[in-house]
UniProtKB/TrEMBL annotation:
<keyword id="KW-0813">Transport</keyword>
<dbReference type="InterPro" id="IPR057672">
    <property type="entry name" value="TPR_IPO4/5"/>
</dbReference>
<keyword id="KW-0653">Protein transport</keyword>
<dbReference type="InterPro" id="IPR011989">
    <property type="entry name" value="ARM-like"/>
</dbReference>
<dbReference type="InterPro" id="IPR016024">
    <property type="entry name" value="ARM-type_fold"/>
</dbReference>
<dbReference type="GO" id="GO:0005737">
    <property type="term" value="C:cytoplasm"/>
</dbReference>
<dbReference type="GO" id="GO:0006606">
    <property type="term" value="P:protein import into nucleus"/>
</dbReference>
<keyword id="KW-0677">Repeat</keyword>
<feature type="domain" description="IPO4/5-like TPR repeats">
    <location>
        <begin position="96"/>
        <end position="252"/>
    </location>
</feature>
<keyword id="KW-0963">Cytoplasm</keyword>
<protein>
    <submittedName>
        <fullName>Importin-5</fullName>
    </submittedName>
</protein>
<dbReference type="Pfam" id="PF25780">
    <property type="entry name" value="TPR_IPO5"/>
</dbReference>
<keyword id="KW-0539">Nucleus</keyword>
<dbReference type="InterPro" id="IPR040122">
    <property type="entry name" value="Importin_beta"/>
</dbReference>
Length: 1226
C-alpha cells in the first residue's frame, strides 16, 4: 500500500495513471482490505508525507457511499470500538500539524457513521474525551490544540453531536475558558478556540444565541495575545468575520463593535509598517463587516469614521512603483488579483454605502482634494479618483449636488497625455460610472422629499436634470477625445479606447426620450466618425493577431473583441438616442456592421468546429476564452443591427430587415434544434427586435415560425426532482472536483425534497420569457393566434414552480399586456364577437386577475413576516436596502398589472379614454358599452375586500422602515386604489354597497389623518390623494345615490385645492370637477367656493409649468364643467383665457372636444366667444404632443386633441389635417 501511495504522488503521468487505476480496482475487489491497509498507514507510518497523503485519501473515501459506508459495514462492533480508540491516540501522535488536522476530520467522519439508522450515538464518550484532552498541559498545548480542532470538525460534520441537551452550553464554557486561559497559555489553542466558537454560534438560533454572548468578548480579547504572528492573526480575523456575519445581534449585545473597530485600525496600521498585505486586508475587512451588519457602532463616532476612510485610502495608495505600465490586468484594476488597491476600493464603497453619505462624504471630500492636489504623484491621483468612483457607485445626493466641482477636477485627468495610463483608466471609469448612475437623477429624491414642514415640495417640481443635461458639452468633448485609434499595440491604450466607446453608450442611456439629438448636438458627427475609425482599426488588428496567434487570446495581445464590442454598443446606443435623426448615418453604418456580422459569424463557426473536432476538454483556456468573447461579440453586433433599424423606422429598415429576417428563419429551420442555447438566444433577440421595429407591418408568416419556437423554449423546465438514485450518486461524488465542471447545476432543498436546477436552462428560459413579454407588449394584436399558449405560460410562471422574481416580473407584465391586447382585439370585432371568444377572454381575465392578486397577497405576507427582523436591524443602525430589488419591483409591478387587467376588462366593450366622444356624450353609459369580460357580480365584493385589505396592510406597516422604499409603497397604494376605481366604473351603482362597507373606512382614515412629511405621525400627500381618488371615482361612476358623498368629499377637496404637492392638488381639482358634473343638487351650495378655488389654482404663480401644469389642466377642465353643467355662464369669458391645455393629455382632449362641440352645435353660451374658441382649437391642433416622427400619426393616448376634434378643426377651421405634421398657428 505504501508503494502504491508513492506512485499516486509521482510526477510521472504514466506511473500516476496506472496507480490510480490499481487503487480503484483494489477498492472494487476488496474494499475491506484496501481501506484497512490504508488506515494502517495513517495510524502507524513514521513517514510524515505518506501518513498525511494516506489520511487525505482515507478521509475522501469515507465520504463516499460505495467505499466508506460499505467498508464500515464490514467492521464488527469490536473493530469499530477499537478504531475509535486508536484514532483518539493518533490525534496526539500524528507526526505533523497538517496530519493531525486530517486525522481530526477522519474522527469527525467516524463519529458521523457511529449514528445508527435510529439516531442512536455509538460514540457517546467522544466529546468528553476531547474535553479531557483540552486540559492537557503538554508542551505548547499541542494535545489541547488538536482536540479543539476536532471539536470544530465535529460541529461541521455531525451537528447532531453538539445540538443535544446541555452540550452547546458545555462547549460554550469550554471554549470560553480556552480562549482566556488555555493550557500553557498556548496562543495556538486560543485561536483554535475562537474558530470553534465562531462555528458553534452558527448553529444557534436567535433565541438561544443570547445565552452565548460571553463567547464574543472572550474571542475578541485573544487578539492582544497574538503578537505579530501573521498566520494566527489571519485565522483570528477570519473567525471574527464569521461571528459578525452569522450572529450580528449577539455581537451588538456584547457592546464590542466600536472597540473592535479601533483595535482593527491599530492592527492594520501596524501591518502596514510591517509590510503584511494580508493582515491589512483582513483587519479592514473586519471593519467593513461591522459597518455592514452593525453600522450604529460606527455612526456616532466621527473620528472613527474618518480613521476608517483613511485606512481605505492607505490601501489604494499601496502600489508597487515598479508595476509595468502596460500590464493590462493591473492597469484595469482587474479582479485577477485581490490587490491592496482593489481591497481598499471595495472597502471604501461599502463603508460609504452602509454608514451613509451624510456621514462619510463631508469627511472624504477634503481627503480627495488633498490627494488630487499632489500633482505628479500618480499613486495619489489614482487613489483620489478611485475615492470619487466609490462615491459615484453609491449614487448619492451629495455627490449629485457637487457634480460640477467633481467633474472639473476629474475631466482633465482623462485625456492628459502626461498622466499615467492607469490613472486615465480610473478617471474614465469614474466618468462612465457618473454617466450611468446619474442618467436619471429624479430617483435620488422621493416624491415627498425636500419639502416644507407640511410635507410639500414648495417648488412644485421634483424633476432633477441628469448629468447629461447638465454637463453634456463638457462630457462629450472629453469622451470624443478618448476614441482616437491607438497608434501602438499597447493593450492598455486599446482598452482605454474601448472604455471611451462604452462611455458614449452610457452617455446615450440618459439621452433618450426624444432628447438625443439635442444633447449629442454637434458631437454626433465626430463621435460616429471616430467610432468608424476604431472599428476599422480593430478589425485590421484582429487580422494581424489571428495570423500570428490563431483563434486564441494570448497574454500581451489586444482584446480586439472587447474593443469592437464596445464600439458597436456605442453605435447602437447613439442610434437609439437619436431615433429618426440617425437616418443620415444609417447608410454608412448598416453596411459596415453587416460586414462585421458576416466576418464574426464565420469566425464563431470556425471556432466551434475547432472545439468540436478536438473536444472541449482538450482546447486551451486561451482558445476557449477567445471563443466565448467572439460569441458575445456576435450578439452585440446583432443587437446593434436591430437598434439601428428601430431608430430609423420600418420604411428605411425594411430592405435590411428582410435580409436579416431571412437569416433568422433559415437558422431556425436548420440550426435551432441543435440546442446551441447561446446562439439561439442571440438570434431570438434579433428576431424580436426586428419584429418590434416592423410593428404592424410584420409578416404573420414570420411570427408563425418564431412564436411556436419561443413558446416551446419558454416551456422547457429548468429543474427536476432529484430521485433517490441521483441523490445517492451525489453523496458518492461530493468530493469529485470534476463533477459539474461548468457549474450548471444547483441543488435546492424544498419541503417536497431536493430539486436540481440547471442554471444554464434557467438563464435561457428567462431570456426567451423576456422576449415573449416584449413581443406581447409591442405586437399584442398580432399575437392573437398564440394568445392561449402565451397565457398558459405566463400564468404557470406566476402560479408556482421553481421560478424567481425575474420570471414573475416578465410574466406579470406580460399577462397584463396580453389581457389588454385581447380586449382591444375583441373590441375590434364589435358585435361579431362569438361565444367561444367571449368565454376565452373571460377565462383569461379571471385566471390572470386571480394569479396576480394571489401573488400580491403572498408578497404582502412575506413582507410582513420580515418587518420584525428589519426593525431589529434598524435598531442596530443597519440601513434598509433601498435599491429597487426584484422583490419590491415585483410587488409594484403586480399591483400595477392588476390595474391594467381591470382596465382592459372595463374597456373591452369599447369605452376607452381615447374615445372622448363616447366618454363625453354617454357619460360612460354601461348600457351601450358593457364590458365583454369583467369581474362577475357575485365576486365583486370579495375582490374589492381583498384589494382594500392589502391597502390597509400597507398603511399599517412601519413607515420609513419597510424593506422597499416608501415611494414603492405609494405606487402600490395608487395602483390598488385605481383598481378599486375601475371596479366601481365597471359595475356602477352595484358597487356602492361593497364600496361603503370596505372602501369608505380606509378613505376616511386617509382623509381624516393629519398631513405630515413623517408617515409615523400622519399621512403623506401621496396617500391623502389616494383617499380623494376613492371618493372621486365613486361619485363619478356610482350613479345618483353616490352623489350623497359630495358632502363628505367637499371639505377635503376644497382644503387641498391649493396644495403645494402636485399629486394632492390634482386629485382635489379633478374631484371638484367630478362633483360639479355628477353631484346633482348636493354640489349647489358649494359652487361659489368651487369656482373661486379653481380660478385661484389656475392663476397661481408657476401653475402652467413643470409637473404642476397637469394639475392646472384638471382645474381648467373642472371650470369648463361649471359652465356646462351648472350654468356658470358669467365666467365664460374668463375661462376662455386659460386654454389650450397641454400637460394632462386626457383632460386636454376633453376640454378641446367640449369646445369643438360647442362650436359645432352653436351653443348659445359659447357662440359669442366663437373667435377665441377657434383660436384655441387651432393652437391646440398645432401642438405636436403625441406625434410620431416615424409614422406621422398621433398617438391617441398621449395627444392633447382627439382624432374627431382634429378632423373637425381641419374641415371647418383650416387646421392641420389628421396625420399631417402640425404647423404653428397663424
Amino acid at each position: 500500500m505504501e508503494g502504491l501511495l508513492r506512485s499516486l504522488q509521482s510526477n510521472n503521468n504514466a506511473e500516476r495513471d496506472a496507480a490510480e487505476k490499481q487503487f480503484v480496482q483494489a477498492l472494487a475487489s476488496d474494499v475491506r482490505s484496501t481501506m484497512n491497509n490504508l488506515l494502517q498507514l495513517v495510524l502507524v507510518s513514521p513517514d510524515a508525507a505518506i501518513c498525511q497523503f494516506g489520511a487525505v485519501l482515507f478521509r475522501g473515501q469515507l465520504t463516499r457511499k460505495k467505499t466508506g459506508e460499505k467498508w464500515w459495514k464490514t467492521l464488527s462492533n469490536d473493530e469499530k470500538e477499537n478504531l475509535r480508540s486508536v484514532l483518539l491516540g493518533r490525534l496526539q501522535s500524528a507526526p505533523t500539524p497538517k496530519t493531525k488536522r486530517q486525522v481530526s476530520q477522519i474522527v469527525a467522519q467516524v463519529a458521523r457513521m457511529s449514528f445508527d439508522q435510529n439516531g442512536n450515538d455509538h460514540w457517546p464518550t467522544l466529546l468528553g474525551n476531547l474535553a479531557q484532552m483540552c486540559s492537557s498541559s503538554d508542551e505548547g498545548g499541542a494535545t489541547a490544540h488538536v482536540a479543539v480542532i476536532t471539536i470544530e470538525e465535529l460541529m461541521k460534520t455531525v451537528p447532531a453531536k453538539v445540538e443535544v441537551g446541555t452540550t452547546p452550553f458545555e462547549l460554550r464554557d469550554l471554549l470560553t475558558k480556552l480562549m482566556t486561559s488555555p493550557p500553557n497559555d498556548s496562543i495556538q489553542v486560543r485561536i483554535a478556540a475562537v474558530s470553534a466558537g465562531a462555528c458553534l454560534l452558527t448553529f444557534l438560533d436567535e433565541d438561544d444565541a443570547s445565552e452565548f454572548h460571553a463567547i464574543v468578548p472572550a474571542a475578541l480579547n485573544v487578539v492582544t495575545a497574538v503578537g505579530n504572528n501573521e498566520e494566527l492573526l489571519l485565522k483570528w480575523c477570519e473567525s471574527v468575520i464569521e461571528m459578525i456575519q452569522n450572529q450580528p445581534r449577539l455581537v451588538h449585545k456584547s457592546n464590542v463593535a466600536e472597540p473592535l473597530v479601533k483595535t482593527m485600525l491599530e492592527l492594520g496600521a501596524a501591518a502596514a509598517n510591517n509590510g503584511s498585505e494580508d493582515v491589512q486586508k483582513q483587519s479592514l475587512e473586519v471593519c467593513v463587516q461591522i459597518a455592514m451588519e452593525l453600522p450604529l457602532a460606527i455612526k456616532a463616532n466621527q473620528e472613527l469614521i474618518k480613521s476608517l476612510l483613511e485606512s481605505c485610502i492607505r490601501l489604494t495608495l499601496s502600489v508597487d512603483e515598479d508595476e509595468d505600465e502596460d500590464d493590462f490586468a493591473k492597469v484595469e484594476g482587474a479582479a485577477t488579483e485581490d490587490t491592496l488597491y482593489d481591497h481598499g476600493f471595495r472597502a471604501l464603497y461599502l463603508l460609504i454605502e452602509n454608514i451613509g453619505e451624510d456621514l462619510t462624504v463631508p469627511l472624504l471630500f477634503p481627503m480627495i482634494h488633498q490627494l488630487l492636489a499632489a500633482s505628479g504623484d500618480w499613486r495619489r491621483e489614482r487613489a483620489g479618483i478611485s475615492a470619487l468612483n466609490s462615491l459615484a457607485y453609491t449614487s448619492g445626493k451629495l455627490l449629485y449636488e457637487n457634480l460640477q466641482s467633481v467633474l472639473e477636477r476629474l475631466v482633465p485627468f482623462v485625456n492628459n497625455p502626461n498622466t499615467k495610463m492607469r490613472v486615465r483608466h480610473v478617471a474614465l471609469d469614474t466618468l462612465s460610472t457618473l454617466l450611468f448612475v446619474y442618467s436619471d437623477a429624479s430617483t435620488l429624491y422621493d416624491e415627498d422629499e425636500d419639502s416644507d414642514e407640511t410635507g410639500f415640495d414648495s417648488s412644485g417640481n421634483n424633476e432633477r436634470p441628469n448629468v447629461q443635461s447638465l454637463f453634456g458639452p463638457m462630457l462629450l468633448e472629453c469622451i470624443t477625445k478618448t476614441l482616437e485609434p491607438p497608434q501602438s499595440k499597447s493593450p492598455a491604450q486599446w482598452a482605454f479606447a474601448s472604455k471611451g466607446a462604452l462611455a458614449v453608450a452610457y452617455f446615450c442611456s440618459g439621452s433618450e426620450d426624444g432628447k438625443g439629438a439635442e444633447l449629442l448636438s454637434n458631437f454626433t458627427q465626430p463621435i460616429l466618425e471616430r467610432l468608424i475609425g476604431l472599428i476599422k482599426a480593430s478589425s485590421a488588428l484582429q487580422q494581424q493577431q489571428t495570423a500570428q496567434h490563431g483563434f486564441a487570446l494570448v497574454d500581451g495581445a489586444v482584446d480586439v473583441a472587447d474593443v469592437t464590442g464596445s464600439c458597436v454598443q456605442a453605435v447602437g446606443a447613439v442610434a437609439k438616442a437619436l431615433g429618426e435623426d440617425f437616418t443620415p448615418f444609417y447608410d454608412t453604418f448598416m453596411p459596415l456592421v453587416k460586414e462585421l456580422y458576416s466576418h464574426q459569424e464565420q469566425a464563431v463557426a470556425e471556432s466551434k468546429q475547432h472545439m468540436a473536432n478536438h473536444g472541449a476538454g482538450k482546447v486551451s483556456t486561451e482558445r476557449s476564452t477567445w471563443n466565448e468573447k467572439q460569441s458575445h461579440l456576435l450578439g452585440l453586433i446583432m443587437e446593434c443591427l436591430s437598434l439601428m433599424g428601430m431608430a430609423v423606422g420600418a420604411s428605411k429598415f425594411m430592405p435590411d430587415a428582410g435580409a436579416l429576417m431571412e437569416f433568422v428563419l433559415r437558422y431556425m429551420d436548420s440550426e435551432w434544434a441543435k440546442g446551441d442555447t447561446d446562439r439561439n438566444a442571440q438570434v431570438a433577440s434579433l428576431a424580436t427586435n426586428i419584429c418590434v421595429c416592423m410593428g404592424d407591418s410584420v409578416d404573420e408568416a414570420v411570427l408563425g415560425k418564431i412564436m411556436p419556437r419561443f413558446i416551446e423554449w419558454a416551456n422547457k423546465s429548468h429543474y427536476h426532482e432529484v430521485d433517490e438514485a441521483e441523490l445517492e450518486k451525489l453523496q458518492e461524488e461530493d468530493e469529485d472536483e470534476d463533477e459539474d465542471p461548468d457549474h450548471s447545476k444547483q441543488y435546492v432543498m424544498t419541503e417536497e425534497g431536493v430539486l436540481c436546477i440547471n442554471t444554464f436552462l434557467f438563464k435561457d428560459r428567462l431570456r426567451v420569457t423576456e422576449l415573449i413579454h416584449t413581443l406581447v407588449a409591442d405586437l399584442g394584436l398580432k399575437l392573437m393566434p398564440w394568445a392561449g399558449d402565451i397565457a398558459k405560460l405566463f400564468i404557470e410562471l406566476l402560479n408556482g414552480g421553481v421560478t424567481s422574481p425575474d420570471f414573475q416580473l416578465y410574466a406579470v407584465y406580460g399577462i397584463g399586456c396580453l389581457v389588454t391586447a385581447v380586449g382591444k382585439w375583441l373590441n375590434q370585432q364589435g358585435t361579431e364577437v362569438n361565444a367561444a371568444r367571449r368565454e376565452f377572454s373571460q377565462t383569461l381575465f379571471q385566471k390572470s386577475l386571480e394569479s396576480c392578486v394571489n401573488n400580491l397577497v403572498d408578497g404582502f405576507l412575506e413582507a410582513a413576516n420580515e418587518d420584525e427582523q428589519r426593525q431589529e436591524e434598524q435598531a442596530m443602525g443597519k440601513e434598509m436596502d433601498e435599491d429597487e430589488d426584484q422583490s419590491s419591483l415585483l410587488l409594484t409591478a403586480t399591483a400595477n398589472q392588476i390595474t391594467e387587467i381591470l382596465r382592459a376588462g372595463f374597456e373591452s366593450g369599447g369605452l376607452t379614454e381615447t374615445n372622448i366622444d363616447r366618454m363625453c356624450n354617454d357619460s360612460y353609459s354601461r348600457e351601450r358599452y358593457m364590458p365583454i369580460f369583467n369581474v362577475p357580480q357575485d365576486q365583486l365584493e370579495n375582490t374589492i375586500a381583498t384589494l382594500v385589505s392589502l391597502m390597509r396592510s400597507s398603511c399599517d406597516r412601519p413607515r420609513g422602515k419597510p424593506w422597499w422604499k416608501d415611494s414603492h409603497n405609494h405606487e402600490v397604494m395608487d395602483s390598488l386604489a385605481e383598481s378599486v376605481g375601475l371596479l366601481v366604473k365597471a359595475h356602477g351603482e352595484a358597487a356602492l354597497e361593497p364600496f361603503a362597507k370596505h372602501v369608505l373606512p380606509i378613505a376616511d382614515r386617509l382623509l381624516d389623518a393629519p398631513l405630515s412629511k413623517d408617515p409615523a405621525s400622519g399621512v403623506t400627500p401621496s396617500l391623502k390623494a389616494v383617499g380623494l381618488f376613492f371618493l372621486d371615482d365613486v361619485i363619478e361612476h356610482g350613479g345618483p345615490r353616490a352623489a350623497e358623498l359630495v358632502n363628505k368629499a367637499m371639505p377635503h377637496l376644497l382644503r387641498h385645492a391649493d396644495a403645494a404637492n402636485n399629486g394632492l392638488r390634482q386629485a382635489s381639482l379633478f374631484g371638484l370637477g367630478v362633483c360639479v358634473q355628477h353631484g346633482g343638487t348636493y354640489v349647489d351650495p358649494y359652487m361659489e367656493q368651487i369656482v373661486q378655488a379653481l380660478v385661484k389654482a389656475i392663476e397661481a404663480q408657476g401653475a402652467r409649468t413643470g409637473f404642476g401644469a397637469s394639475a392646472t389642466d384638471n382645474a381648467i377642465s373642472a371650470l369648463l364643467k361649471c359652465i356646462i353643467f351648472k350654468n356658470a355662464t358669467s365666467i365664460t369669458a374668463k375661462f376662455l383665457t386659460y386654454p389650450p391645455c397641454t400637460s394632462d393629455a386626457l383632460e386636454s382632449r376633453i376640454v378641446h372636444y367640449r369646445l369643438y362641440r360647442a362650436l359645432a352645435t352653436q351653443n348659445a353660451t359659447f357662440m359669442p366667444h366663437a373667435d377665441r374658441i377657434r383660436q384655441i382649437l387651432i393652437e391646440a391642433c398645432s401642438n405636436d404632443t403625441g406625434l410620431s416622427t416615424k409614422t406621422g400619426a398621433f398617438d391617441e393616448e398621449t395627444a392633447i386633441v382627439s382624432n374627431e376634434t382634429r378632423a373637425w378643426v381641419h374641415t371647418n377651421l383650416g387646421g392641420p389635417a389628421p396625420g399631417q405634421a402640425p404647423v404653428p398657428p397663424s
